Amino acid sequence: MSTFKAHINIMPLEALLDPQGKAVTGSMTNIGLPEISHVRIGKHITLSIDANDKKTAEGKVEEACKKLLCNEIMEYFTFDVEEVK
Amino acid sequence: MSTFKAHINIMPLEALLDPQGKAVTGSMTNIGLPEISHVRIGKHITLSIDANDKKTAEGKVEEACKKLLCNEIMEYFTFDVEEVK
Question: ipTM of the predicted structure?
Fold first, then answer.
């Protein structure tokens, strides 16, 4: 049994407005950074998985995203899994 | 003038409790994934920067993190910047 670490990004779907990101984009000008635009804000999640191999670990992460972490109506997820030595 | 895209991760400091992550770790067992533990939840932010070169763009992103995006008392940030062709 090995331990793996997953890094997951969950972002609002491109087709949807991201009101939080919109508000932050507006604030950038106010703090003197008008060069910054198109701010989108999502979640970054790290977690540990006990599994026999990387493929199994990836399957568990995908299951966790679909069942619990990501609302696929409004968000999409990407992740990568690495073995912890 | 080029356009750059930044990917920023903002996570709760390791020394601090992450109550949201703790709660999600507990839920993993309930949905049949007891192999998953140590869930920590932060923010993932993407944004565009107009700048002459990558170094300037990185400076702008660091400034945005310190001034607005990251509360350095409770969180730390990491980011990477790439040029958009």
Answer: 0.93
The answer to whether residue B48 neighbours chain A at the CB level (below 8 Å) is: yes
| Closest chain B residue by Cα to residue A49 | B36
Alpha carbon distance A57, A62 (integer Å)? 9
Tokens of A64: 């966790």
Per residue in B26-38, pLDDT (tens digit) is: 999 999 999 999 9
pLDDT-based confidence at residue B72 (cuts at 50, 70, 90): very high
- The Cα B64–Cα B47 span in angstroms is 10
Are B47 and A60 inside 8 Å of each other by CB?
no
User: Is the pLDDT at B85 greater than 90, yes or no?
Assistant: no
The Cα of A16 is separated from the nearest Cα of chain B by a number of Å equal to: 15
Domains assigned to chain A: 2-84 (3.30.1280.10)
Would the CB atoms of B42 and A42 count as touching at under 8 Å?
Answer: no
Nearest CA in chain B to A56: B35
Give the Cβ contact number of residue A77 at 10 Å: 20
